[in-house]
């Protein structure tokens, strides 16, 4: 599925003074990063990517416009997602992370603002944040690939003689196998297609790149 990068404005980090352990230097253990989308209408969020920097747990809240007659409301869509299995060790401290909409706790449609809540309970790390933050929305859907109508349901005049005998049982063979079988039989029955790739150069070379017998 395609995705499109959404232009956004990442506001400065705000340190919360309550709710978590402080480090020995007096730094708070909870940070908040607000993200706005000034040039984009409310959209369906598809994916969030970033590089972690010593953040142990991540929560995400989104502001959604449910309808034109009601004010936008904040909803928690991810709660205490673990980025570092052990906050006192460096495992996962500087890894790239991708979060998709199916991992969220709520519907990600009509998002107008985003709030990241970062938590690091360990006093070992003097600073923590997320870097290279990027937000994606769902891109245009690609047209479905289907077999041509003439291959799936050939008209009687297009069916080769051999196609009338030994037709696979539709209840036992998938439609894809039937279509490939039909194509093979049509190539077999066609004299002009029986020797694909044959060509002569000055009467010296005769290459059979593909032949059906």
UniProtKB/TrEMBL annotation:
InterPro entries: Nicolin-1. One of its GO terms (cellular component) is nucleoplasm. PANTHER family: NICOLIN 1 (PTHR31239), NICOLIN-1 (PTHR31239:SF2). This is Nicolin 1, tubulin polyglutamylase complex subunit.
């Amino acid at each position: 599925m395609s995705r499109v990068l959404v232009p956004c404005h990442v506001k400065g980090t705000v340190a919360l003074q309550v709710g978590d352990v402080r480090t020995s230097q007096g730094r708070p253990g909870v940070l908040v990063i607000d993200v706005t989308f000034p040039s984009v209408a409310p959209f369906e969020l598809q994916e969030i990517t970033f590089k972690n920097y010593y953040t142990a747990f991540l929560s995400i809240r989104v502001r959604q416009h449910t309808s034109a007659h009601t004010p936008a409301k904040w909803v928690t869509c991810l709660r205490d997602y673990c980025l570092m299995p052990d906050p006192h060790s460096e495992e996962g401290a500087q890894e790239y992370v991708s979060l998709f909409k199916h991992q969220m706790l709520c519907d990600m449609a009509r998002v107008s603002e985003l709030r990241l809540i970062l938590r690091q309970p360990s006093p070992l790390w003097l600073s923590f944040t997320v870097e290279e933050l990027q937000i994606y929305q769902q891109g245009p859907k690609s047209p479905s690939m289907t077999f041509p109508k003439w291959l799936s349901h050939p008209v009687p005049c297009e069916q080769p003689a051999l196609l009338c005998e030994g037709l696979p049982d539709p209840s036992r063979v998938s439609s894809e196998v039937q279509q490939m079988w039909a194509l093979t039989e049509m190539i077999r029955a066609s004299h002009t297609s029986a020797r694909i790739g044959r060509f002569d150069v000055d009467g010296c070379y005769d290459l059979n790149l593909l032949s059906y017998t």
